[in-house]
């Protein structure tokens, strides 16, 4: 495989991993109680969760559009549960604006087994 094809494949794999992370975080935010009731186009009731709008990889940060009526402290309260679900050491919550927050994921330090 030439270098160009390798780079394209690596980029596709990175995009797929990012999409899986976004989907996982969206699900976790709903499961930890940060969803609000809503209705679907099909006419049924559903839960609407905060939206992941961007991901930065190094350091790992996710920008989240919070729902009306939510405040950053709502996320601070469940940060340990989010960290546990994502298998990271900690999740820090930073306010970016009136309806935006950033979740900073602090990785666990893995010790090599001797």
Describe this structure in words.
The chain has 114 residues and is an alpha+beta fold. The protein has a single domain (3-106), classed as Threonyl-tRNA Synthetase, Chain A, domain 2 (2-Layer Sandwich). The chain has helices spanning 3-34, 72-86; strands at 36-39, 45-48, 51-56, 61-65, 90-97, 100-106. The strands form two sheets. It has a four-stranded antiparallel beta sheet, with helices on one face. Helix 1 (3-34) packs across helix 2 (72-86). The longest helix has 32 residues, at 3-34.
Key features of this structure:
114 residues; alpha+beta; Threonyl-tRNA Synthetase, Chain A, domain 2; four-stranded antiparallel sheet; two-stranded antiparallel sheet; 2 helices; 30% strand; globular
């Amino acid at each position: 495989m030439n270098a160009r094809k390798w780079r394209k494949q690596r980029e596709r794999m990175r995009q797929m991993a990012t999409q899986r992370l976004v989907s996982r975080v969206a699900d976790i935010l709903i499961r930890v109680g940060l969803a609000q009731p809503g209705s679907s186009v099909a006419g049924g009731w559903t839960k609407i969760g905060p939206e992941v709008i961007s991901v930065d990889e190094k350091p790992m940060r996710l920008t989240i559009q919070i729902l009306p009526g939510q405040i950053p402290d709502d996320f601070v309260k469940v940060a340990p549960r989010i960290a546990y679900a994502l298998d990271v050491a900690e999740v820090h919550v930073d306010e970016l604006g009136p309806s935006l927050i950033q979740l900073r994921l602090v990785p666990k330090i893995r010790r090599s087994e001797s």
